[in-house]
Recover the amino acids of this structure.
């Protein structure tokens, strides 16, 4: 079946089965490889995208469930690393192996949209993505930096 999707501000079509996970439509059918496969069970968050501004684990979201939702992937943040979160991620040296980073960035972007100056508790509640390198303190600092906060502002 052909699904008409709204991806990163553009209309796209995908001829796939309805139960195909959105992750595979993005990566294999549409060539948007920034979104990563991690666990395949929606637990790790490497595949995090936004649908209508909400954080979604794309590995467990069938393409048929997307409907008219507007999908944003990591590619939509910025083509040249100029997004405040990308700059903060680099400044705070968040990436180690880097595999979880696209999902982390997308979760952080949703957080800052809903809470422009998040508290530590809000950061902890929103950032449920797993990082095997354990860069969580750096993630918190990067989110604060992107929000224009000082370390002591979020406590």
């Amino acid at each position: 079946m052909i699904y008409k999707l709204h991806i990163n501000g553009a209309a796209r079509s995908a001829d796939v089965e309805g139960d195909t996970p959105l992750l595979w439509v993005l990566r294999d059918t549409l060539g948007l490889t920034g979104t990563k496969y991690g666990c395949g069970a929606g637990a790790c968050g490497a595949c995090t995208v936004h649908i209508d501004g909400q954080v979604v684990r794309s590995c467990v979201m069938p393409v048929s469930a997307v409907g008219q939702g507007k999908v944003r992937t990591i590619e939509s943040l910025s083509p040249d690393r100029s997004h405040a979160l990308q700059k903060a991620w680099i400044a705070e040296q968040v990436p180690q192996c880097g595999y979880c980073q696209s999902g982390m960035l997308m979760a952080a972007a949703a957080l800052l949209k809903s809470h422009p100056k998040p508290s530590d508790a809000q950061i902890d509640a929103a950032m449920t993505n797993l990082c095997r390198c354990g860069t969580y303190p750096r993630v918190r600092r990067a989110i604060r930096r992107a929000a224009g906060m000082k370390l002591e502002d979020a406590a």
